[in-house]
Design brief:
single chain; 474 residues; alpha+beta; Purple Acid Phosphatase, chain A, domain 2; Jelly Rolls; 2 domains; 7-stranded mixed sheet; 9 helices; 27 strands; 18% helix
């Protein structure tokens, strides 16, 4: 009898724990843009996406080009993700029980073939079996929820039309629905980019206060490039390499541009949980071109900023990523009196300096993940060693961006370790708490780096070996 009661109590407690402990929400999905032309390049990107086995796919417009129908350019490649679409020779209604394909309208969808009428005839959006607020009253712009993410799809071509009523209606709807969202992440996507370093003119019509309204990220297409931009307190992605011709970049990148790529076709793989959302752009060869993570700030990985002093300290050799470029790399260097395990030096020690804008794409790079608890102005101090005027400077940036106020940190030419940086020399702006990446790029060949201190205290100046390395969450 006692054993029975004990086992019953154990089972009851276990059941209570299973009910009381919320399940971790997680979803992995793909984003493709400017793809609908039925080319081998589109097929290659579709094959790449299928290898990931995403739960669903979102598109960034231009789902078709020219006279090719949606069955030929969408159904042929993505029938397994479609439900309730128009019948065709490649895809008769779709193979998915619930819709798992969520397009946005592009100018190609408006202008080519049967235009928007054909688009709306082919797709049923957001589709059966999909959680949605159902408040837009339109299939041109709509919303849906998957896992921890609430998606808001806009009709940027409609917003760009001369009549402002479509734009205003979408803005009012988006602002209201973002305010009501209870999801961990809110993603807005549409075709025409608000900001871009591509050769197409950015759509200022779409420069809405997304961050202020509650969005966490904005994804667009239209420019046939990949770019990551930080503007107005939020990250913007351009992902237009889905299969149509590859575009080019302006000579001078737009302000806030962090990563630019047009070397191959590809798509974005996005993995979201209750605590993080990670964006990757992967080319058709399977190479990861860019990675970016947003963290809730709880339990995130990275060096931990001290909440009281505002300091975070890390040894140069403990980089989370060490990326060689242009024939140069950061390698271990054992010059005397370094802090920690070793110092780093760029190798080879002679050659071309990386001084011009765009160095973030050509210079060897070190990345350090930092969990910031303070926002606002921060100052970067670097412990470096320069024995020549040809190797006495280094670049520092934030989240992959070239930060003008931190790109020319100069050191005394002397056979000794020195600290350089701080107010007036190396300043970065942290706009949101959570995980950010401090970047170090080679400016001159042969420079040695030993340690970094990032602080919100304008009155702090390190000396000697500097403060002890900060704790790191892993």
């Amino acid at each position: 009898m006692f054993t029975y009661l004990k086992n019953t109590l154990f089972v009851s407690i276990l059941c209570w724990l299973l009910i009381a402990t919320p399940a971790m929400a997680q979803t992995l999905f793909a984003a493709i843009g400017d793809y609908g032309n039925g080319t081998p390049e589109e097929a290659s990107v579709a094959g790449l996406v299928y290898e990931w086995n995403p739960e669903f796919i979102i598109t960034l417009g231009d789902n078709r080009y020219g006279s090719m129908g949606y069955d030929e350019v969408v159904g042929q490649y993505f029938c397994d993700y479609l439900a309730d679409v128009g019948n065709g020779g490649f895809c008769s209604g779709g193979n998915s029980q619930a819709n798992a394909f969520f397009p946005s309208l592009g100018n190609g969808d408006y202008q080519d073939g049967g235009g928007v009428k054909e688009y709306l005839s082919y797709f049923t959006l957001p589709g059966k079996g999909v959680a949605t607020s159902g408040t837009s009253g339109s299939e041109r712009y709509y919303d849906f929820v998957k896992g921890p993410v609430h998606f808001f799809i806009l009709d940027s071509q409609g917003a760009r039309n001369k009549s402002n009523s479509t734009k205003t209606a979408q803005q009012n709807w988006l602002q209201a629905q973002l305010a009501k969202s209870v999801s961990q992440w809110n993603i807005v996507y549409f075709h025409h980019p608000a900001y871009s370093s591509g050769t197409s003119t950015p759509s200022t019509v779409m420069q809405w206060p997304f961050a202020a309204w509650g969005a966490d990220a904005v994804i667009s297409g239209h420019d046939h490039i990949y770019e990551r931009i930080f503007a107005d307190g939020i990250v913007y992605f351009i992902n237009g390499l889905g299969g149509d011709t590859i575009g080019s970049f302006l000579k001078t990148p737009v302000s806030g541009s962090q990563v630019r790529y047009n070397g191959d076709y590809g798509a974005m793989q996005i993995d979201a949980s209750d605590t993080t959302i990670e964006f990757q752009f992967i080319n058709s060869k399977g190479d990861i071109i860019d990675e970016y993570m947003i963290d809730t700030g709880f339990g995130g990985e990275g060096y931990q900023q001290d909440a009281e002093t505002g300091q975070v300290v890390f040894e140069a050799e403990h980089a989370d990523a060490n990326i060689p470029r242009s024939g140069y790399s950061w390698v271990a260097n054992f010059t005397a009196k370094y802090s920690g395990d070793s110092a780093l030096r760029t190798s080879p020690t002679s050659g071309s300096a990386q001084k011009d804008p765009g160095y973030s794409q050509t210079s060897p790079q070190l990345d350090y993940q930092v969990n910031f608890v303070q926002t606002g102005t921060h100052y970067v101090w670097v412990r470096g060693y320069a024995d020549s005027s040809n190797n006495n400077s280094v670049h520092v940036g934030l989240d992959g961006a070239e930060v003008t106020s931190s790109e020319n940190i100069y050191f005394p030419v002397t056979p000794a370790w020195n600290w350089a940086g701080g107010p007036g020399v190396a300043t970065i702006m942290v706009l949101s708490p959570g995980i950010h990446t401090i970047n170090v790029w080679m400016r001159e060949t042969g420079f040695r780096i030993d340690k970094l201190v990032v602080t919100s205290d304008a009155g702090f100046t390190p000396s000697g070996f500097g403060p002890a390395e900060s704790p790191v969450n892993r």
